[in-house]
Structures are given as structure tokens and as C-alpha cells.
Design the sequence.
């Protein structure tokens, strides 16, 4: 009788352990990029103690471009599959520096700094004509990164910490710069690129939002 009881208890213990393990295996790991959870149709998996996540989900979480070359079976993340001749680094750096100077002057509400880098016929939809006096846009830029360019244009990914009056806390969008005569001719938002977040981690220790 005691022997049968011991076997029954052991069987119950094995069942409990197996059930706990099965439950853990069914809980898919979460992907957090820049402090925000990335949703993906292909769930991450734990295989032999290693977490495998879909590269597209991670890349899109970082707002990085991703391309697949089926011929060479190669994944390109923020890379050019047709890499050939080097672009003019002088032209790129000159345009990038102009754009970054404009962004920093705008962020600091430095009207003269803005005027120093724009053409007389400059156009923008980033701020109103009364900039910097009278503007209600009090967002603070916490991150910026050039993400696309041609010889006369540059697209910059902008991350802004917005005011407490907004329903969201962080706005991510792209601004397109057009250059001419060694200055900036226009800065306009790229349509349909705005994302609204509650939090953003620039790097561990530099967190914004809630």
C-alpha cells in the first residue's frame, strides 16, 4: 500500500513539473527595442537555451531598412546590396553638417542660427512664420540620424520628447532637407512617417517618456 502511494505521489510530481515546463515553453519571449515592445507575427522562440528572434522585427524596431537577396541568400540590414562606387563624402558631409546645424539651431530656438544656413526663399512646415517667438512647438529633440541621401537631399530621423500636454510622450518622424547654393532650401516632414510612443530609450540610462 505504501509502495503504491509513493508511486502515485511521484507520478503527480512528474505531472506538475511537466506542466510547468510546457507552460513556460508556450510563453513567447518579448522583443523590446528602444524601450518599446515590437509586435511580430513570427514569435520569438527559445531553442536549446538560446532566444531566436525575427530579424525583420528587430530591424523595423530600430527603424532600419532590411532587404533579402534570394539569389545570394543574404539579408541586408541598413546596407546597400548594390554597393559599388563610393559616394562623394565631401558633398554628403557638407549637407549633413548643414542639416544638423539647422536642427540644433531650431531645437535651441536660435533664430539667427537658422537664418545662417538657409536660402532667402527657404520653405518649411516644421515651424510657423513667427519662429522662434510665438511658436507653440516646445518639443525637445533627443536623437537624430541621417537615414537617406542624394547629392542634393538628406532625410533625417528625428526623435522628439514632447510636452506634457500631448497624449503621447515621444514622437519619431523623418524630415527631408533639400540643398542648393551651399545652403538649405527647404525642410519638410516626410508624409506618413510619424510614430507616437510613450517611451524611448536612446541608450541604457538615457530614457525619455514614461
Sequence:
Amino acid at each position: 500500500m505504501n509502495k503504491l502511494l509513493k508511486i502515485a505521489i511521484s507520478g503527480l510530481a512528474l505531472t506538475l513539473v511537466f506542466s510547468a515546463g510546457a507552460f513556460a515553453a508556450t510563453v513567447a519571449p518579448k522583443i523590446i527595442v528602444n524601450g518599446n515592445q515590437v509586435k511580430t507575427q513570427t514569435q520569438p522562440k527559445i531553442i536549446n537555451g538560446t532566444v531566436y528572434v525575427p530579424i525583420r522585427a528587430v530591424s523595423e524596431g530600430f527603424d532600419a531598412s532590411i532587404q533579402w537577396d534570394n539569389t545570394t541568400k543574404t539579408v541586408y540590414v541598413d546596407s546597400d546590396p548594390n554597393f559599388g562606387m563610393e559616394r562623394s563624402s565631401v558633398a554628403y558631409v557638407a549637407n549633413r553638417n548643414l542639416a544638423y546645424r539647422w536642427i540644433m539651431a531650431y531645437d535651441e530656438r536660435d533664430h539667427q542660427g537658422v537664418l545662417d544656413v538657409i536660402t532667402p526663399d527657404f520653405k518649411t512646415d516644421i515651424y510657423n512664420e513667427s519662429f522662434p517667438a510665438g511658436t507653440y512647438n516646445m518639443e525637445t529633440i533627443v536623437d537624430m540620424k541621417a537615414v537617406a541621401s542624394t547629392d542634393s537631399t538628406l532625410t533625417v530621423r528625428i526623435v522628439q520628447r514632447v510636452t506634457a500636454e500631448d497624449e503621447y510622450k515621444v514622437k519619431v518622424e523623418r524630415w527631408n532637407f533639400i540643398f542648393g547654393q551651399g545652403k538649405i532650401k527647404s525642410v519638410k516632414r516626410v508624409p506618413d512617417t510619424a510614430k507616437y510612443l510613450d517611451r524611448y530609450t536612446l541608450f541604457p540610462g538615457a530614457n525619455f517618456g514614461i
Summary: Residues 2-26 form the longest helix (25 residues).
